[in-house]
Structures are given as structure tokens and as C-alpha cells.
Amino acid sequence: MSVMSSVLLLAQEQAPAAPVRAEAPPVTAIWPILIVLGAACLSVLFEALLPKDLRWSFQVALTLLTIAAAGVKLITYVSDAPAAGETAMFGTLAVDRPALFLWGTLLALSLGAVLLIADRSVEPGGSFVATAAIRPGTVQDRAQVASTGMQTEVFPLTLFALGGMMTFCAANDLLTMFVALEVLSLPLYLMCGLARRRRLLSQEAAVKYFLLGAFASAFFLYGVALLYGYAGSVRLADIAEAAAGSDRSDTLLFAGMGLLVVGLLFKAAVGPFHTWTPDVYQGAPTPVTAFMAACTKVAAFGGILRVLQVALESTQWEWRGVLWGVAIVSMVIGAVLGLTQTDVKRMIAYSSVAHAGFLLIGSIAVTDKGLSSTLFYLLTYGFTTIATFGVISLVRDSSGEATHLSQWAGLAKRSPLLAGVFTFLLLALAGIPLTSGFVGKFVVFEAALSDGMGPLVVVALVASAVAAFFYLRVIVLMYFSEPAADGPTVTVPGAFTTAAITLGVIITLLLGIAPAFALDWASSGVFAIR
Amino acid sequence: MTPTYYLLLSALLFTIGAVGVLVRRNAIVVFMCVELMLNAVNLSLVTFSRINGGLDGQIMAFFVMVVAAAEVVVGLAIIMSIFRTRRTASVDDSNLLKY
Amino acid sequence: MSTSSTGSWLLAALLLLPLVGAAVVVALRGNDSTAKAAALAFSIAEFALAIVAWVQFEPGGARLQQAFSFDWIPAFGVHVSFAVDGIALAMIAVIGLLVPLVIGAGWLDKLPEGRTKGGFFALILLEQALTVGVFAATDVFLFYVLFEIMLIPMYFLIGSYGGARRQYAAVKFFLYSFLGGLIMLASVIGCYVLAVEQNGTGTFEWAELVKVVSTAPLETQIWLFLGFFAAFAIKAPLVPVHTWLPDATAEAPIGVAVLLVGILDKVGTFGFLRYLLPMFPLASKELAPLVLVLAVAGVIYGSMLATGQRDMKRFLAYVSIAHFGFIALGIFAFSSQAMVGSVTYMVNHSLATGMLILVVGMVIARGGSSRVADYGGMAKLTPVLAAMLLIAGLSSMSLPGTNSFVSEFLVLIGSFPNAPVYTIIATVGMVLAALYVLWLYQRVMQGPVRGDALVGAAGGPGTMVDPAVGAKKAIADLSGREKLVLAPLVVLIIGLGFFPKPVLDVVTPAVDATMCQAALADPVQSGERQLQCR
Amino acid sequence: MTGTINLAAEVQQASGVANLAWLLLVLPAFGAAVLLIAGRRADKWGHLLGSATVIGAFAYAVLLFFDTTSLAADDRTREAHLFDWISIHSLNVEFGLRLDPLSLTFVLLITGVGSLIHIYSIGYMSDDRDRRRFFAYLNLFVSAMLLLVLGNGFVTLYFGWEGVGLASYLLIGWYQGKDFAATAAKKAFLMNRVGDVGLALAIFLMFKNMGSTQYSVVFDKIGEQSTGVIVAIGILLLLGACGKSGQFPLQAWLPDAMAGPTPVSALIHAATMVTAGVYLIARSNPLYSLPQAEDARLVVMIVGAVTLLIGCVIGCAYDDFKKVLAYSTVSQIGYMILAVGLGPAGYAFGILHLLTHGFFKAGLFLGAGSVMHGMNDEGDIRRLGGLAKKMPITFITWTLGYLALIGFPFLSGYFSKDAIIAAAFSEGGSRGWIFGGIALLGAGLTAFYMTRLLILVFLGKPRWENLKSEDGRAYHPHESGWTMTLPMIVLAVGSVGAGAILSGVLPEWLAPTLGELVEEHGPLSHTVIAILTVAISAIGAGIAFALFGRREQPVTRPQRVSFPVRAARADLYGNHLNEALFARPGVWLTRFLVFVDNRGVDGLVNGIAAGLGGSSGRLRRLQTGFVRSYALSMLGGSILVIAALLMVRFA
């Protein structure tokens, strides 16, 4: 009823149409995005034009070059970027410090992910199906498993997803955000289904991810619509203005806000909107899982931060309590459900749910500290995750990856190095000092405490203590248990995977011991609010 | 006539879509329900732009349609592959991944 | 910020030497004998360094000496800064002494298949480095970091070299301490936030934080206090959060048990002195009754449970729990005598209980079982071993003439004026201590020869064999190596019983400083003396 | 009395011979250390070194004694500061010696009797392959005992106090292969520890109220303390004394302590250590002499009286040679405690009786040892008898000691015990009558059980002739070698003469420490009391003779006996009481706590873990794998979020 009346009220007065700025778009700021998307189109052409045997090498080269080039452009821009940030493309993109930080993070992470995707040494021919059209379980399927070809479309897909992510966390209005959301999601849906082995699981993951994703983006979109109805514009700044001082129906505002946030939380795999996470993480080909777990989270939380801090800051006292609840639920689900998982990838999935909870704590603290700490946490978490999945992809038996925990028993005896690296990564996920994981937790909790969220922090600490148990469980298995008779073998990784894992481990260690520089970047500036 | 009714209608459509997603088994139908939700949103977008007197709501609707079309492409591809494997499009049959 | 005084290189060396040693030993782990030799060499060198540090230390000098410090995370005002006061120095010296002995004691131990002596000793050296760091850290953040890292080598020492239920014990140990640590982390951050609120820029320098936090209102102090206390109480351990210790001690190899009980647990009581009292004086006074109750409960509860144990290593754990009760009592009775007593108790407990564990280890090595029921009349076969057990036992029941007497006496006499009732209850612990020590000695060493291994060696169940023939066969008395390991402890136990002055002199100034940071005055004043803070 | 209170002011610094006083401690300690460290290598000469060190100490003590007598009475209290032991701000515990008549008296007793018993042990332990260790322990004891009496503060006293406890533990448990010996040793140490707690608490009180634990300061300030503090300290000290001296209620350990070799019983559990309680109270006379300490003194007297009765009564019923002597010791120390409890009127007599008792009780024990040595360690007096002819020297020396003990006129016991009885009467009033009466009655009982002992062991038929000892050997009683008889002879001489000599000189010799002996005159004159005592003792002896002397005694103790005898045989149920009050509840409590710790405290921890695991196992079932249920949970979640948001806004 109140909706009705308020809308009626709203119908009377005519909001002035949003002014359209007509200056030429300053492209220097958004070169990275343009490069990535451009390269994505180019690599589609490669797929169309190049002979099969050349594609892989060309695609890999192109992708890596793209990321490198984008990175270079980014760095050159950062060196002389306005501290306050600027908007581009008629104000649809806000290129400010956080956005740049997130872009850097995304590029670096996707570099690692691409290395994993491109690897063909661990699994002959790479971990992607030769021809996605083949039905699983058929003769052809067995043939394609043996063959060394792979569906190189995964590379353009990756680039598109990356471009979408970069756009997503720089989007300055909700429509751009929605489009970017789809641009990053659709390729991921497909990539999930491209596993070379265990095709059934892979396809199932794809279906689930797709249906739920679409469902979620519908929510997101409806949220956008309601907010548009409330503010008369989808610009974050305008929404903030409207929310700060207006007599319009708050029902629209809060309903819209709710739906919008749900859409975002879904992408960020925050409980209770995490249900897709375990299944998809487990079913998708491991490199893709790495890409999703690391980059999607970064992008999603980039969006969450921007929406909460720019558009909804003035209403934080309304939504803060609710998000407290969500954070707690997420941490508890992640920590408790992780305890009894028997599949490594699934376990990491639940760990990522718990981490999403921690990240949310940082995002709730609507302060500069909250922003910078969350950004830093994203950086640390991303690299640790990439390396973790990289290691997981190395433990294999005849039927592919041996992800069942029981198969990991006594692994330290077979391959001390791998066990050592994995232990280190697990300790990082658990947040033991001298790993990036600890510094990340530390800064986030520090921000939360100084914003007066003591109880939440205590819950988080208890949760991470509980979560520590399942990390320890793996360590116990690897070190203190006798190896299984027909245990898996540890393949010696090729250059690509090695590079990816090394990158992740080094950054994890570096950020654990000398986090100062990264912290400075993360706190170098705040969202540009125009 | 007030635009409010259009809003209510779109809310109704959205709900129908959502419920449809929950109750229907066939992947195609589920997917169609999602499309229905998107279009419900389109309706309210257009309505709001009418209320606010700007055009951008209507433009947004076009964007949404394009995106929806893209989704259809991807979605049908995935559903097809599942269907060819299992000879059924029932979403309930694909639950190897659980617990 | 970076204060560097004479001998700071020394502290740095103390920290780095074991690390280097660990690395070298790992490198040599292929060859057991060289690895062992290297480990021993490094540990002895470390001990020598510790002695030099002891000599260099001027009791009358600055509160914290041999300090060095450099920035670590400027964004949070975190420094890598180390320094020692008398208390830390004493503990570091004890570590330096115990590690070589532990290595010597573990020289011939059988390890689980697939494990190398090199790995084992390397972990021990690593643990040593970390504990030295914990005691020497003067930056709260750094302290916390080392406090947590310290768990990892110990986790592997228990988990990969321990007994049958080692997995359970290791995980229990880790989770218990880790949880405590996390709760402390909340308080650590809380202190930092306070600092930021008060003077704009946050810092973790201990001295700075003391200034900031000690002036905070009672309410705040209590919360922060509880955070730290949780961690330290688990580490110490106080009743009722002690149950990880018996399991850990029972499953850990003997040498590791020595480090665990002798050194790691001291971090808890050290924390009481270094962090709780100076940083939260109001809260300390407010909550002292709580701690005292736990302490006294620990004394009685630990002692009674010790008498009820069937397993010698669990027995040792409960004995230590009782002793930690005394230490806590002395710290929170707020008199310089009691506090000095507690600090010396920390040292003496490491020596006495350390020796007790080593001796029990030698008993187990001969009898092949840790169940008390499997022993009896062993003194006939191994008189020297029996004597050693008795000496260690007498010290841990703090008989006059042994080091522990000095500390226990100081704790009790110092606590009496402020906390008479608690002290009287704790004094009952003296009787119980005699009870459990003599009980163990009688069951293991006296009476007719019992237990398969022993009877086998002695010939015929319960017969009074002539050791001259009976002992030689299977069960030999202490070997030269074992005597060498125990000798220093015996000398110190008796020596410090008569001349505790060297330790007291080093410790007292630090205690005075702590007392006056906590704004505490002695209940019994000798008149002419006034506390002045340094 | 005033003399005693400001006595602290007159403490002189030790000089000359007295500067070497530390030798007294170091000599025996050195012997012990050498013997223990040298190990088997020292087996050849160990006993010689052990004895030599103690004899040396004795020689020095004599020197010191004459040095002291050469001083004026007021300068005889001297202190030798060795080093600061424990010193923290207001607390300063120094390691120093106090050389005054009281401590010197004890030093002479300890080193003298100690030397004799060392010599005796050479023969007695000759066939024990660990004789060296035995001497090491004896030396350890002597050194600790000397520290106890020489220390110039309560903490040094406590040091010696526990030191002798350790030595006695080691020696009682000498035959550690036997469970009962080990148990007896443990029991002795534990009951002593109970007493030590009292002593410790007394020390804490002193520090709290007087800021020091040194005699000089404490005795100086004790007068200014409140009555409550004084009485408390007095009673706590008494508790300590009870533990060490086997006084009621802590007497039960002393008889069991007889499990040790006989020389140990003689030296530690008759002559020296068990009298430490008397020393403690005499030493604290500035406290007990205070008028405020009235109540404390009364308690002391009661304990003494009760104990002396208990000792006598149980002594009458036992058939174990050494246990009878042990209970006799208990009751004699009861006399001493009673005496020192009388205050200025009794301190000197207490010490006097302590000395004479030192002589004759040591002699009696050595005699017993000699008998058992010759009788395959047979301790059951019913299996002995008629040994007078077989071992004459033992018989004569033992009889002299016996006569001294029962207070035969003009032997040492006569002087010391009668003095105490007289002093007790002279307390005056009903108190005088009660305590005097008890003391008198005790004298009679003593005569009774000692006579019984004499008859059963030395007189009558040789019941052992057609018996075998438990290890199956026949008995071949024979006199012991000179190393054993010599000490017995010396002690016999002492027990004959000591009383006569000491009773004259001791009081004024001790005056600087204990204050002038206050002569009070009760209802009865001394002569009357003397006659009464002798008469009653004679009656006791007569009854004993009538009961045991004329009839043949059975070899096994008769089972069907009257209640009093049964009670006495059961130590008047003292052990049963401890058992019921402490031991059994303690065991139950321990079992209960072990259960609580495993099931309760640890159970809670594991329970939480299990709970988390279980709930996790159940919750993961919600992850059904059906995409539609996921969608439902999402929808539910979003509805909740929106509802919550709206509620926060509109409510």
C-alpha cells in the first residue's frame, strides 16, 4: 500500500532529466580496458581464421601480450593520474585510485590464471576439452581425452571476462555495471563447461552456474530498475544525492538496494548466496576455478565497495545491521561446512565463502580504512587462491586430478616440495603470521574495530579459528598419515604452471613479510564521488 | 490512468518468473522464466522513465534486451550440451555435484 | 626510533644463530651423525652467546638493554624491535641451556621411520630461535607474530615425531593456542586503535603502548586485558584451559616435552609480567582475584590430578600445571618478593621439571613404557638413575637446598601479606607436591622389582636380586652421555639453591620496573626504600 | 623474662674460634658429598671418612664450647654471618649461624651422639654392601641437623628442618626393596610436611608483621605484636614441632620409622631429630614467655600431656622391641614439650630431659640393635628372652639405660623427669594438679612397659631356642664387636651420670638464651614429688614383674585380650583416624577429579569439536545438488535481506 501511495506521490512531480555531458571521452584513462576488449575481439578473429595447429600458440601469445600491454598502459597512466580520479566515457566509468588498484590486481591475477589455463604439460593438451560438442562417455570422447588438441576459444572468453570485470569495478552507473556483470559472467558460464575430463561434472557446473547466475542478475537488474525509479537516474552519484536528501518513497530505495546487493553478493559468493560455489568450483576445470575464485571475487567486491561507499553511504545505518548478519552467516557457513568436506576443491570453495565473510566485514566499514583494507585483502586472497588451485592441479592419478582428500594422505613423503608449498598456502588461508593472509585479516579487523565493530571481529576470529581446523586437517593428512597404496602421483609442472604457482607463493610471502608498499597503494586514494 | 498499475504488473510478472524458476524442471522452461523476469524489469524500467519523464529508462530497456539475447545464446548452448549428453533437459537430473 | 645500544649485535646474533643452525642442519640431514654434530655445535654456541649476553647485562642499567629496532610496516607503525630486560634475559639463558641438553638427550632416540635426526634437530633449533624472539620482542605486533609462528615448529615436532595419538595431540595443541592467539589479536588491534585515537598515529612499540593503554578507562582495560589473558592463560596453562598440555606432553618426544613445558609455557607467565601488568594496571588490580582463584585452583587441582595419573608423562604435565599455579599466584599477589619469586620460579621450573622430564625419559627408554604400573624397584638395578629422579623430584617439591625452594618460598612469603587466604591454600600444595613426587619415586624406584622389562632384567618376579648380576643384563644404569646431560642441571639445581643471588640480582630491577609501571607498592616496606620508576 | 626479650640487642659478632663455625656444617656435608659422588670407589674407606668428619665436627664443637664458656654470660650469644641467601628489598634472609648456649648444647649432643652412632654403625652395617651410602646419608643428616640448630633465622631453621626430614626419609627407606619400608619413609616425610606447613605459615606471619625472619629482629619486635598474631604464630610453630617430634596428632609416623636400620632409630628417631620440636619451642622462648602467649603455651602443654599418655599406653601393648622404644620416645618427648610449655619455669628442664634422654634412649636403641644383630634381626620380643647371659655387655648397658629412663634414683632420668613433674605441679591450681598428675601417671606407665621389655628380652626362658627366623636360620645369639659395644658403654655411662652433673649447671648455662630459670613452688614440695615419682615408678615396675616375670610367656601374642589392649595395639586408632579423615577421602577426591578432568573439562572441549563436526555433517546435506533448491535458498535469502532492510527502515 505504502508503495502505491509513494509512487503516486512520485508521479506528480517531474524530476529534471539527467544532464548529458558532451565532452570527448578521455581514452588515456581507460586504455587497459580498451586493450583487453580489443584483444578479445582480435582473438575471436584468430579462432575464425587461424589453422587449428597454430591457434594455441597464437592465442597464448596474444593473451599474455594483451595483459602485459594493459599492465604497461596502466602503470604509465598511474604515474600521472589525477589523485582524485576522473570519469571517462560520458561519466559511465570512474577511473579513480581504487579502480586502478583493482585493475592492477585483476591483470596480475588473470596473468596467473591464464598461465594455468594455457598449460599443456600437466595434462597433455591442457585441461580443456578438444571439442566441446562431443558427448561425454562416447568413443570420440575417449579419443579427445587422449588427443592433445584443445578448445582455444577459452582464451577470447577469458579476455572478455577480464574486460567485463575491469569495467565492472570501474562502472560509475548501474546500467554499465549490469552490462559489465553480464560481460564477465557469460564467458565464465561457458568456460565452466569446457573440462577435458569429468565432462559430466563440468557441464553440470556450467548449467548450475548459468541458471543461478541468470536468476541473480535478474534480481540485480530489478534492483537497478527500482533504484532508477527512486532516484530518477542510475548514476551512483545521483542515487547517493537522492538517498541523502529526498522525500521520496524509501520503499523503492530499500527494496532496490536489497535486490541490487543480493545480485552482487551472489557474484562474490557470500553466504547465504553461495550455494552455487562448491558445485561450480568442484566441477569447473581447475584453471577456470582459479580464475573465478580469484578474479570474480575481486571484481564483485570492487563493485560492492563502490556501490556501498558511493551510492549508499548515507543510508549505511539502515543496511549495516543487515550486512552484519550476512557476514556472520557467510563466515559461519564457510567455516563449519568446510570441516567435513572430502574434496579439496570443495573445501577451498567453502574457505572462499568464509573469506567472503571477512571481506564483507571490511566493506561494511564505510571508511577509507575499510576500503583500503578490503582492497589489500582482495590482493592477498587472489594470489594465494591462484597458487592453491595451481598446486591442486598437480596431484593426479590415472583418471585426472585426484581431488579426494583421502588420496592426499602421506603426500609429504612422495613430494616434500609440493607438500611444503601447499602447507604454506593453507597457513596463508588460515591467516598465520608471516603470510599475506595474516596481514590481510589484520588490516580488515583493524578497520572494523576502529569503526566500532568489535563483536563482529570476535565472531570473525572464532570463525577463522574453526576454519583453521580444516586447513590443519589437510596438513595432518599430508605429513602425519601413511601414504595410500595406490595414491596419486605428483606431476612435474611445466614452465607455465610453475610460473603461476611461484608467482602466487612469492606474492603471498612478500605481502606477509613486507606488506608496506602494497598497503600504501591500497590506501593511496578513495572513490571519486561526482 | 496511473503508471502505478504497470509497476504492480511488472512486480507480478517478476514474481511469476521467480516462482517459475523454482517450480519448473525443464531447463528451457526455467530459462524462459528468467527471461520473463528480465522483461518484467523492462516493463518497470519503461514505466519509471515515463514517471521520471526521461528517456534513459527506455534506452536501458533496449540494453537489457540485448543482454538477454546474449544470455539466450550462451544459455541455450549450455543446455543443449547437457541435453545431448543426458537425453533430458530436466535440471533435477544433473545433481552429481552435491554435499 | 631506532635505538641501538651496546651489545645489540649480540641480541641479533642470539636470534639469528639458531636460524642459521636450523638451515645448516637441514642441509646436512642426509647424514645423521654430521647433522647431529652440527646441531649440538650450534646449540652450544648459542648457549655461549647467551652467557655473554648475561655478562654484558647491567642490572642497574636501562629497563631494556641490548635493544635494536627498525621499521617493518610503517603504515601501522610496526617495528622489528628487540631488547631484553632481566626477565627476558633469564628465560633466554634457560633456553640456551636446555636446547643443547635436549639435543644431547635425544642423541640416540629412535625416530618414526622416514624421519631424520637432522629434520628433528633443525625444528628444535628453529623453535629456539622463535622463542628467543618472543621473549626479546619489544613490539607488540612482532610479539604476536612470533607468538603464533612459534606454534608451527612445535606442531610438527609433536605431529611427526610423537607417539601413537600424536595427530590428535598436535592438532589440539595448535587449535587451542591458535584460538587463544586470535583472541589476543583482537586486543592487540584494540590497543593499536586506542593509540590511534589518542595520539593520531598508531604504534605497536611496547613502551609507547604502555603509555597509551595504561591510562585508558577501566572498562576498556578490562576487555583488552581479557583478550591477552585468554592467550596467556591457555599458553601457561591455567585451569580450566589446560587440557591440551597433558595430551601434548604425553605424545611429544621427551626432548620436545622439555621444550614445551620448560620454555613454551613460560611465554604465558612471561606475558602476564610483560604485558598484562604494565599495560592494564587498573584491570589487573580489578581482575586479580579471578587470576588468583585460577592460580590456586591450579595448584590444588594439578597436584591432586598428578597423584591420580597412570602415565608418567601425563603426570609431568599435571605437575607443571600445579607449578604454573604458583607462578601465577606470585605474579598477581602484587609484591616484589612474590613477583621475583615467580620469575625465578619460571627459571627454576624449567631446570627442575626439565630434568624431571629428561630423567623420566631415561626411565622410559629402559622400561619401554610410560605407564607407572610397569615399573617398581628400579633403584636396585639403576641406583644413579634413581638418585637423579630423586634429585629432580625433590627440586620440584621445592625442598630447601634446591633452586625451587627459593622461588616457591619467595612466592608464598611475598603473596601472604596481600593474599593470605590464597597463600594458605597454596601452601597445602607443598604437602601434595611431596605426596606426588614420593608416590612416583616409590612406585618406580622402590619396593620389589615389578614390570616385565625390569623383572626380565632382574630375573624372577619381585625377587630381591643382587644388582651386580641383575642390572648388567638388560637394564644398564646411566651412560656417560646421560650423566653429561644431567650433570649441569644437578649442579644448577643445588647451586642456585644456595646462591640464588646471581639470578635474583638480574631479575629484581625488571620486577621493580614492572611493579611501578603497574603502580604497585610493596605491602611490607623496609622503610628506607622507595620505588622509583625507570 | 625481661632478659629474654631484649636479648636480641646483645648479639655479638662471632670472632676467634667461632669464625670457623661454618666448619660444623661443611665437614659432614663434605663427607656426604664425597661419599655420594665417589660411588663404589669409596666403598673401602667410606665409613671411615664418614665417621671422621663427624668426630672432627665434635672436636671443633668442644673447642667452641670452651671458647664460649670463657666469655661473660651476656656475651655468649654470638652470630656468624656467612652470606646473604635471599635478599629482596624488605625481605632479607641471611645465611648465618647463631652460636649461643642453647645451640651449642645441641651441637654437642648431635655431634657427640652422632660420632658414637657412626662408630656403632661401622660394625652394625658391616655386611650391607651399601654401607658407604648409609654413612653418606648419616653425614647428610648431621649436617642438616646442625644447620637446624645453628641457623640464625627461622628460614635457615626451616632449611635444616626439611633437610633432616630428607635424611630421615632416605634412612627410614633404607631397605627400599621392602614396600613397608618405602611406605613408612613416605609417611614420615608427608606427616612432617604437614608440620612444616605450620612452620612455613608462622614464618609468613612473621614477615608480614615484623618484616623479617631473623631471630634477632623477630624476638625484638614480637613483644609489640597483637595477641592474635602471637598466639597464631605460637600455635603454628607448635604444629611444626608436632610434625617433627611425633607429637599428637602427628605421632603416627614415628613408630613406623623404626623400619629403618637401628642406628638410624637411635640417632634420628630418638636422640636428635625428633627433639627438634623441643628446640624450636625453646628457641622461640621470647614468644612463648610473653604474657599474651598464655593460650599458646596452654595448647603446648596439652599436646605434651596428651602425647606422653598416648605414648605410654601404646608402649605397654606392643611386642616389637623397637616400636616399644619408639612409643617410649614419643612419650618422653611429650614430657619435654610439656616442660617447655610451662614457660620460663620449664625450658631448662625440657632441655635437660632432652639431653639425658639423648643418652639413655640412644643407649637403649643401640642395645636393641645389638640384640637384633645377634638374633638375625628378630624384633619380636616374644621370640626373644633370657639373652642376659648370651650378651652380657649389651644386657648391662641396656639395663643402666632402662633404669635411667624409669627414673631410678640418682640416675639421669631421675633428675630430669622429676624436675619436669615438679614444675608441672608448680604450675599451680587445677592446671598444676592435672598436668602434674598426668606426668606422674606417665612415670608409672613408663616403668611398667620398660620393665616388661626388660623381662621379655633379657630375662626369663630363652623362647627362641626351638624357633627359626623367617629366613629359616636358627638363632645363634652372640655379643657384638667392640665398635658396637663401645658406644653402648659410653652412652651407659652418660645415662648414669649426665643427670647429676647437668641438672646443676645446665640452667645457668642456658640462662642467656632461655632466661633465668624461674623457681616456683607448687602445692607439693620437691622432695614429696620425688618420693611420689619413685614410688609410682616402683609400683609400675612391680606390676610388670608380677604379670610377666613369673609366668611363662606365649611365643605368639594372645589374641583374646581386653579392649584397652586392643586399642593400644591399634595405636589407639590413630592410623585409622588418619586413614578415615585424610587418606581415603583424598583418594576418592583424586579419582573424582581425574574423572572430571577427562570427562568434564576435556570432554567439554572435545564435545564442542564433535558438535561442530556433527552440525557440519548435517548442514552439508542441505547442499542437495538440485539447482532449484539453490535458487529457493537464494530467493529466501534475498527476501530476508529486503525484509530486514525495510524493517530497519520503517520499524
What does this entry look like structurally?
Chain B: Its main location: membrane. Chain B: Keywords: Cell membrane, Membrane, NAD, Quinone, Translocase, Transmembrane, Transmembrane helix, Transport. Chain B: The chain crosses the membrane at residues 6-23, 28-48, 60-83. Chain B: It comes from Actinokineospora globicatena. The complex is a heterotetramer of chains A (530), B (99), C (534) and D (651). Chain B is built from 3 helices and no strands. Chain B is mainly alpha-helical and 99 residues long. Chain B has a single domain, classed as Orthogonal Bundle (Helix Hairpins). The mean pLDDT of chain B is 90. Chain C starts with 7 loop residues before the first helix and ends in a 17-residue tail after the last helix. A two-stranded antiparallel ribbon of chain C has the order 1-2. Chain C is globular. Chain C has a domain at 288-524. Mean pLDDT of chain C is 89; it is low at 1-6 and 460-473. With 534 residues, chain C is an all-alpha fold. Chain C has helices spanning 8-27, 32-56, 86-105, 117-136, 140-149, 151-161, 166-199, 206-214, 218-235, 244-251, 254-264, 266-279, 281-307, 312-332, 336-367, 378-381, 383-396, 403-418, 420-445, 452-458, 467-470, 480-498, 501-517; strands at 65-73, 78-84. Helix content of chain D is 70%, strand content 3%. The termini of chain D are far apart. Chains in contact: A-B, A-C, A-D, B-D, C-D. Chains B and D meet through helix 1 of B and helix 24 of D.
Topology:
The complex is a heterotetramer of chains A (530), B (99), C (534) and D (651).
Chain A: H1 2-12, H2 31-49, H3 52-79, E1 86-88, E2 93-95, H4 97-118, H5 139-146, H6 154-168, H7 174-192, H8 199-231, H9 236-244, H10 250-267, H11 276-283, H12 286-311, H13 316-338, H14 344-364, H15 368-392, E3 395-397, E4 400-401, H16 411-414, H17 416-430, H18 436-450, H19 454-480, E5 489-490, H20 495-513, H21 516-522
Helix pairs in contact in A: 2-3, 2-6, 3-4, 4-6, 4-12, 4-15, 4-20, 6-7, 6-12, 7-8, 7-12, 8-9, 8-10, 8-11, 10-12, 11-12, 11-14, 12-14, 12-15, 13-14, 13-19, 14-15, 14-18, 14-19, 15-17, 15-18, 15-20, 15-21, 17-19, 18-20
Chain C: H1 8-27, H2 32-56, E1 65-73, E2 78-84, H3 86-105, H4 117-136, H5 140-149, H6 151-161, H7 166-199, H8 206-214, H9 218-235, H10 244-251, H11 254-264, H12 266-279, H13 281-307, H14 312-332, H15 336-367, H16 378-381, H17 383-396, H18 403-418, H19 420-445, H20 452-458, H21 467-470, H22 480-498, H23 501-517
Antiparallel strand pairs in C: 1-2
Helix pairs in contact in C: 1-2, 1-4, 2-3, 2-4, 3-4, 3-11, 3-15, 3-22, 3-23, 4-5, 4-6, 5-7, 6-7, 7-9, 7-10, 9-12, 9-13, 10-11, 10-14, 11-15, 12-23, 13-14, 13-19, 14-15, 14-18, 14-19, 15-17, 15-18, 15-22, 15-23, 17-19, 18-19, 18-22
Chain D: H1 2-5, E1 12-13, H2 22-38, H3 46-69, E2 78-88, E3 91-99, H4 101-124, H5 131-150, H6 154-172, H7 179-210, H8 215-221, H9 227-245, H10 253-256, H11 262-271, H12 276-283, H13 285-288, H14 294-317, H15 321-341, H16 347-374, H17 392-405, H18 412-426, H19 429-458, H20 482-514, H21 526-549, H22 563-569, H23 574-619, H24 627-650
Parallel strand pairs in D: 1-2
Antiparallel strand pairs in D: 2-3
Helix pairs in contact in D: 2-3, 2-5, 3-4, 3-5, 4-5, 4-11, 4-16, 4-20, 5-6, 6-7, 6-11, 7-9, 9-12, 9-14, 11-16, 12-15, 14-15, 14-19, 14-22, 15-16, 15-18, 15-19, 16-17, 16-18, 16-20, 17-19, 17-20, 18-19, 18-20, 18-21, 19-21
